[in-house]
Amino acid sequence: MSVPASTAPDPQAIEAQAKAFRDRATRIQSEIARVIVGQTEIVQGVLVAVLAGGHVLLEGVPGLGKTLLVRTLAQVMDLQFSRIQFTPDLMPADITGTTLYMDDEAGHRAFRFMPGPVFSNILLADEINRATPKTQSALLEAMAEKCVTVSGAQRPLPAPFFVLATQNPIEMEGTYPLPEAQMDRFLFKVNVPSPSLAELSAIVERTTGTEVAAADKVITEGEVLEMQAWVRGIVVAPHVRDFAAGLVVASHPAKDNSAPEMVKKYVRVGASPRGAQSLVLAAKVRAALSGRYNVAMDDITAVAANALGHRILLNFEGDAEGINPADVVQSIVAHVSDWQRAAMPKM
Fold it and tell me: Which residue range(s) make up the domain with 101?
């Protein structure tokens, strides 16, 4: 069945849109690099998640520039930024806001909603695992539905809306592990490494002098929404979509051959369907950043560790032996790749 000429995609228009997307993304990364030294993969990982419309969990020891990265990203994209320092005494109302009985502008007393810091474009949840599970769960509705319910009224959040949370993987005293349901809301979990000698030297030089590095705005809120919308139109071939789905299926410790031995031995619970959605959306952004209007299997493989690692829960044996979820993901990718290759028809 032929496609009418009026509705057929225009290759030149698509190429122009792809170039505009790449140019904007390049400007964003270049401007962030004026403030953040190195950490290229971390910056790209956060950018991929944001352009895919997802949330990010940044894990690393203090002092690695996680807060500075999030603040700079908001500055470059001209987005409203809020920061919450999570502590054990933080309450849900401190995040979502509350309804107060107070005087209005005319001097009459009435109930008035006072919005919390969650009503922003980019919310930095600093040391999110230091708050109690009750307070952590206050972000669940915001992350999933882009709205919050206060005093029985549902209130939409600004668009775009992202939660970028940080946590310290070493200092665990007085912390509360994030609920599994909340971990699943993060599109990516990105591990922030320590800088190299050259990077650390550059950081010291840049931050101990008289000049303070600053980033300029390069795109607007509307352009961010345009980039998110354009990404969703990128084509995913059926075999690539099946590969992403196969990775999620193989992350479950099933008794059949769909799971590798490492999963059967060390995994308690595998990734949810949100894992497959995260794989495909992130792979679309990666393809767009590479100048392609179609997703390759390499794009799925490249984002698999960040998209699936935090969704795979190890069993007691896995925890006891110190198994790294990233290694489990790598074994799943290799297993599904071999299985899919064997299942392809012989030419």
Answer: 11-232
